[in-house]
UniProtKB/TrEMBL annotation:
The lineage of its organism: Bacteria, Pseudomonadati, Bacteroidota, Flavobacteriia, Flavobacteriales. Residues 104-126 have a biased composition (Polar residues). The keyword Signal applies. This is Lipoprotein. Residues 1-24 form the signal peptide.
């Protein structure tokens, strides 16, 4: 009976360990984008942007709007494949930036549906 209990415990441990996920690879993949980035955007508005991407894919920074003559917060995220999405300004009346990052460059489009303007953006890792 003691051997049956030991075998049962070993099986439970083996199943539990095999079902666990390893999020370490995801963080490592996002870490290739980590660092300081900067670039420009053009279209219905134009300006510059700077952002810091952390190892978890969180993006924080600011964008300067030539139309508004002010800096606005930039907040978003990037996934392990480099797909990027951020809001510049507020979610209610800001612009949505979408695109993709590679190891040291990124590009995409932006849209402000409130003001009905849009354009494109590019950037590089500093």
């Amino acid at each position: 009976m003691k051997q049956v209990k030991i075998i049962y415990v070993i099986l439970v441990l083996a199943v539990g360990l095999s079902c666990s996920t390893d999020n370490g690879n995801e963080s490592q993949e996002q870490a290739i984008f980590a660092g300081n980035w900067s670039g420009t955007y053009t279209g219905g508005d134009s300006g510059t942007w700077t952002a810091t991407i952390d190892s978890n894919g969180s993006v924080e920074g600011e964008a300067f709007s030539n139309n508004l003559q002010q800096s606005l917060p930039l907040n978003g995220s990037i996934d392990t494949s480099g797909d990027f999405r951020a809001t510049v300004g507020s979610a209610m009346n800001g612009a949505t930036f979408k695109g993709a990052f590679a190891s040291d460059q990124g590009s995409g489009t932006w849209e402000n549906s409130t003001d009905q303007i849009s354009g494109s953006w590019t950037g590089t890792k500093d």
